[in-house]
């Protein structure tokens, strides 16, 4: 047995151990999904992945479940009571503040990612919002108040240019990257993407410290989709 086979076996054993640990570890979100299934399984029109609850009863169940688990109401919790966690106050279980913080205003990633999407091909605002929602698995949902001012700013910086799909109706504005935007995107990727990789590595270590489920050290995690600006894509080579 060579070293590669030995490492493969060790990784397989480690994955089995972690699978067992996941079953034993307390998991609020797993328990919440179980509670949803117990209460509403089979009801027409009720998706278990729904974000905001459609009835006062459902929202109250969420609040009571949170209170029973955490010992306080969502808006009163000493950590999660702040404005950044407000979607949880309203029962948006799919919301992930650790994703939202880097994509929200001031987080630095959203302008780069939007420019990246427009450089990939011409797009309109709603399309960009849908892509971000899909790529984050609904963990952060953008809104017109965030995207359209950003597109206007990118236009003012001459990084993109917009034109009406129908100049008479003026309902859909299509955005295309400029040559200046392509150059700026290349610089931004070279500057930001390595720091994102560093952040992912740090978060992985912190999660491991707290007993989280992450890939073994010698097993490469899935890479991101943005290249480094020098024409070299991340290892999976996938484009968004």
Structure in words:
With 240 residues, the chain is mostly helical. It has 2 domains: 16-95, no CATH class; 99-209, Arc Repressor Mutant, subunit A, CATH 1.10.10.10. The protein is built from 9 helices and 3 strands. It has helices at residues 3-24, 28-40, 56-70, 86-89, 97-103, 109-120, 125-135, 144-156, 179-209; strands at 123-124, 160-164, 173-177. A 3-stranded antiparallel β-sheet has the order 1-3-2. A hairpin with an 8-residue loop joins strand 2 and strand 3. The chain starts with a helix and ends in a 31-residue tail after the last helix.
End-to-end CA span = 40 Å
SS-based class: mainly alpha
- Order of the strands making up the biggest sheet: 1-3-2
Helix content class: 40-55%
CATH class assignment of the largest domain: Mainly Alpha
CATH fold naming of the largest domain: Arc Repressor Mutant, subunit A
| Low-pLDDT residue spans | 44-52, 216-225, 228-240
**CATH architecture term of the largest domain:** Orthogonal Bundle
Please state the overall shape, judged from the principal axes of the Cα atoms. Answer: globular
Beta-strand share of residues: 5-15%
Indicate the mean pLDDT: 80
Total strand segments: 3
